[in-house]
Amino acid sequence: GFKEQLKAKYPGLELIADKYADGQATTGLNIATDLITANPDLKGIFASNLIMAQGVGQAIAENNLAGKVGLIGFDSDEKLIKFLNDGVISGLVVQDPYRMGYDGIKTALAASKGEKV
Predict the structure, then answer these.
(1) How many domains, in total, are found in the chain?
(2) What is the pLDDT of residues 74-107, one digit of tens each?
(3) How far apart are the C-alpha atoms of 2 and 21, rounded to whole Å?
(4) CATH number at residue 74
(5) Among 17-21, 27-31, 61-65, 76-80, which is the least confidently predicted range?
(6) Which residue of 41, 47, 49, 70 is most buried, as measured by CB atoms within 10 A?
């Protein structure tokens, strides 16, 4: 999935770590701080959920790296929107649960009627 697409579309990009943070912002903060410290030329981080994005955003803010280390986070809340407005986060992938559910049911109904989906 994600790593394969990065490799295919950005062959010059070096993926230095793939970490799991147990859904804890503090763990995300600690992992990001360690990555930042060990890799002074770090260009960016992708955080795959709300809590990890909060922790990574905090690490970037605490290390005064806003605008130097890019962060793409997944989901959003007030804290992440503030990070986005402050330049700590470069971008957010925001979901629309209502639309996802609506489209899922609509597709299932069409499939149950034998329609092409």
Answers:
(1) 1
(2) 999 999 999 999 999 999 999 888 999 999 999 9
(3) 17
(4) 3.40.50.2300
(5) 17-21
(6) 47
